[in-house]
Amino acid sequence: MSSPDPQVRAARNHSTAAADRVPEGRGPVVAVTGAATGVGDLLTRRLAASDEIKQVIAIDERRGEVPEAHWHVLDVRDPAIAEKLRGADVVVHLALDLDLETDSAARTAYNVRGTQTVLTAAAAAGVHRVVLCTSAMVYGALPDNDIPLSEDAELRATAEATGVGDLLEIERLGRRAPRAHPGLNVTVVRPAVLVGGTDTALTRYFESPRLLVVAGSRPTWQFCHVEDLVGALEYAALEKVEGELAVGCDGWLEQEDVEELSGIRRMELPSAVALGAAARLHRIGLTPSPAGDLAYTMHPWVVSVSRLHDAGWRPRWTNEEVLAALLEEVEGRHTVAGRRLGRKDATAAGAAGATVALLGTAALVRRARKARRRI
After folding, report:
1. What is the pLDDT of residues 133-183, one digit of tens each?
2. Buried b vs exposed e over 227-264: b needs ≥16 C-beta within 10 Å?
3. What is the pTM of this model?
4. CA–CA separation, 249 vs 20, rounded Å?
5. Which of 3, 104, 112, 144 is deepest in the core (most CB within 10 A)?
C-alpha cells in the first residue's frame, strides 16, 4: 500500500484544537462548505437551530451571518481545510460554482478540485460521512426515460449541458472515495429543477416571452424548492438516509399543465432549427447556455423520491406551488434563448416575440462574423 499524501499525513498528525472547542451536547458535529450563501447559508441556519445537532462548522471564502456556527474562512481547495474539519462527524459539501456566466474551464477547475480536496481532507480528519449535492440532471434527459426514474437508474447524462460534466465528475469522485478511504461513507443528494434564489438555464426558461417547445418532444417538469432540498440535506446530515437519493416534489407536470398554470404560450419549432440555433448562438458567445441544455426542456427526467419517503421525509411544496413561486421570482426579468436582456432589449423582444429572436440567429451569426473580420 502506498504512503499517504504528505498533506494528509500532516493533517492527521496536527493538533486537535478545533475538536476541543466543540461544546458538549448530543447529535453529530456537521461541517458545511459554501456556508455563507445560497443553499449552504440556509442549511447552516437550519442546523445551527436544531436540537439534534451538536455543533456546526461553517466554511466559506467569507464569513456568513450565522453567529451560532464556528466559522473558518478559506477556499475549499486549500489542503488546510483538513484541520478545520477535525472534530466533524459529517461534512455537507455545497461549495460549488454553477453560475451560467462563469468561464467553463474555471468553473470545472473549482468544482472538481474542491470536491477532491474536501473528500481527501474529510478522510484525513476522521470524518465518517460526506454528503455531496449534485442534480437529478445527471440521469440525463432522454426520450426513452422511465417516468419516474428509479434512484438506481443509470446515469446517462453527457457533459453537453451547463455544469453537468462537473456534476458527473463529482459523482465519480464520490463513488471512488470510499474505496480510496475505507471508513468514509458518501451520500449523494440529487435535486430536481431547483427553485428559490437560483439562476439556471432551467429557471431562465420561464423568463422568456414564449415557452420554447421542440416539435415531437414530451417535456415533463418536476421542481424542488430550496426549502425541501435543505430538509433533505438535514436528513442526510443526521444520517437518517444514505446512499444515492433524489429530492423533489411528488409527481410532475406535463408541458400543457405548465402553460396553463403560467399563462405563457408556447413557441414550437422543429428540432433541427431549435438545436441548431442554440448551438450557433452559444458558439459565438451570444448566449451562456449550450445546446445541451435544451434536452432538459424536451425529454423527461422525472425522478422517484422513494428513499427519502421511506425515511419519513415529505416535501412541503407541490410542483404547482413551486412553479408559482418561480414565476413570481422571475417577474420583470426577460430572457431570449438563455440570454438575459436589459430593459431596452426586453421591450424589443416582447414586441417581436421569441420566434423572431431565434429564427434571426443566422443574421446574428453573419453580423458577428463581419464584426470579427473588421477587427
Report:
1. 999 999 999 999 999 999 999 999 999 888 999 999 999 999 999 999 999
2. bbbbbbbbbbbbeebbebbbbbbeebbebeebbeeeeb
3. 0.84
4. 41
5. 112
CB atoms within 10 A of CB 67: 8
Question: What does residue 269 show for φ and ψ, rounded to 5 degrees?
Answer: -130, 150
Distances (CA, A) of 314 to 248, 256, 336: 9, 26, 35
Grid cell of 60 as nine digits: 466559506
8 Å CB contact between 187 and 130: yes
Closest CA to 294 of 121, 87, 142: 142
Q: Taking the CB of residue 356, how many other CB atoms lie within 10 A of it?
A: 12
Average pLDDT on 308-328 reads 98
Distance CA 97, CA 1 (A): 35
State residue 171 phi and psi, 5-degree precision. -65, -40
Q: Encode pLDDT of 227-250 as tens digits.
A: 999 999 999 999 999 999 999 999
What's the confidence (pLDDT) of residue 359? Answer: 45
